[in-house]
Records
---
Amino acid sequence: MDARGVVFIHSSPNAVCPHVEWAISGVLGSKVSLQWSPQPAAPGQLRAECCWTAPAGSGGALAGALRAWPMLRFEVSEEPSPGVDGERFCHVPTLGLWTGRTSANGDIVVGEDRLRSLLAEVPASRLASRVNDLLGSAWDDALEPFRLAGDGAAVTLLHQVG
């Protein structure tokens, strides 16, 4: 079953851009050429985004491949598909990689077992902070200026070669 998603490379040094394309190509099984543009939120850095279609679970594979370059800021989303939850992966150099399950409308979903465990283990004074960690709030805060700088940018459409 194929899934769909989006890769946002929010900031990359110019020298790393070909490596990013090779990494995405390796996961999707076809040559990828992204449309790179300057990232105003990080002068000297470039940004690109692409939509993809590939087997379910490819979002995690894409995030894993991109994680090889710790200086990248990126997001990978995979929409829910029949029998498979959606996921969002965010990477910020200072925070590392965060992942969360997503609902059909893109909200982060936290399972009841994680919430029960959190309630049992975390003092009330730290509860809000830990919920924010589960929701990826620090990653959202760090990436928001980079997201806004990409409004109206070109998007590359990719499909896995079967």
Note: Helices lie at 17-28, 58-66, 112-121, 124-135, 137-149.
---
Amino acid sequence: MSKSLFERLGGTEGITCIVDDTVETHMNNPAISARFIPYKEQPERLAVIKQHTVDFFSAGSGGPANYSGRDMPTTHTGMNISPGEYMHVIDDIFVALDKNAIDEDSKKDVLYILWSLKGMVISQ
């Protein structure tokens, strides 16, 4: 039996590392950093957002997580994220995947998930 994407990403521990690395990369990406840097002053809020992201991606990748956050359109309403910004987010996620030595097939699966979410995030 083949492993789930959750398992291939390293389970909860691996996904947590990927989320941490992604957020750090977002904060250093001049194209989108303005959306993320304010959370440096709100560490409790940032911790909640990271945990929701870990739970969301864990549940969506076949893991035993219980996502209790808002849905994607509700979460992103009013943010008016552009297609270009979304592409920067995807690029940053792939930097984190590479940093965590995620294999090519798993990266393709992640890209499929991210691409399926774009309509729920862009221009909300």
Note: The radius of gyration is 14 Å.
---
Amino acid sequence: MENKRALGSRYEQQAAEYLRNKGYAVLESNFRMRTGEIDLICLSPDRSIYVFVEVKYRSDDAAAALEAVNLKKQQQIVRTALRYIHAHPQMAEAAMRFDAVGIDSKGCVIHVENAFDAV
């Protein structure tokens, strides 16, 4: 049986591959700071938007996985994204957005662009 971190890593890799196939450039995965973690940091297919992606897995329903991206989690992602941008001055004027990817055990992937705003 996989531990929680290994399972999460496997689904984050699946989400990264899904996004690459849609034309996204995956810049970083599992970016961690004291403020929290961002699963994937990408550039949009047209390379104009930095996309911070939260990946969630639920064995029974990919849509239910997305419900786990609650307000507290959103705030943590936004704080961490802002610190990431602060550490990368070339991104200061760039557009950004927050997406969510839900995955279930059947391999169903749901990608929600603009899943939430900077709160």
Note: The longest strand covers residues 25-33.
